[in-house]
TrEMBL record:
Keywords attached to this entry: DNA-binding, Transcription, Transcription regulation
Domain of life: Bacteria
InterPro entries with a match to the protein in the record: ArsR-like_HTH (IPR011991), HTH_ArsR_DNA-bd_dom (IPR001845), Metal_resp_trans_reg (IPR051011), WH-like_DNA-bd_sf (IPR036388), WH_DNA-bd_sf (IPR036390)
Listed name of the protein: Transcriptional regulator
Length: 108
């Protein structure tokens, strides 16, 4: 029985290529100051591209590019209202990691 448990444990510790890729891309997303600022803002309020650009003093094209990257990783989602898209966080796990890391940085 112990042998079977150890075998299951060994297999569960192996990360498949897709998981490794998603994890590395997620950390890449969180490694960029602009994306951190966008995610932090969205963790407090839903925003359109224009609102994000205004709040963070960024070019609209920069915000759109970063949101596309974040959307592809399913870190943000959007809803459409007329012709405007409103963005919000799409993953509580990653947002929790971000908030905990910000808290860590502010209190070390």
């Amino acid at each position: 029985m112990d042998e079977a448990l150890n075998k299951d444990k060994d297999q569960s510790e192996q990360l498949d290529e897709e998981t490794l890729f998603i994890v590395s891309q997620t950390f890449k997303a969180l490694g960029d100051p602009t994306r951190i600022r966008i995610l932090h803002l969205l963790s407090h309020q839903e925003c359109s591209v224009n609102e994000i650009a205004e709040n963070l003093s960024l070019m609209q094209s920069t915000v759109s590019h970063q949101l596309r990257f974040l959307k592809n990783l399913r870190l943000v989602k959007y809803r459409r209202e007329g012709t405007t898209l409103y963005y919000s966080p799409d993953d509580d796990h990653v947002m929790n990691v971000l908030q905990q890391t910000i808290h860590h940085a502010q209190h070390h």
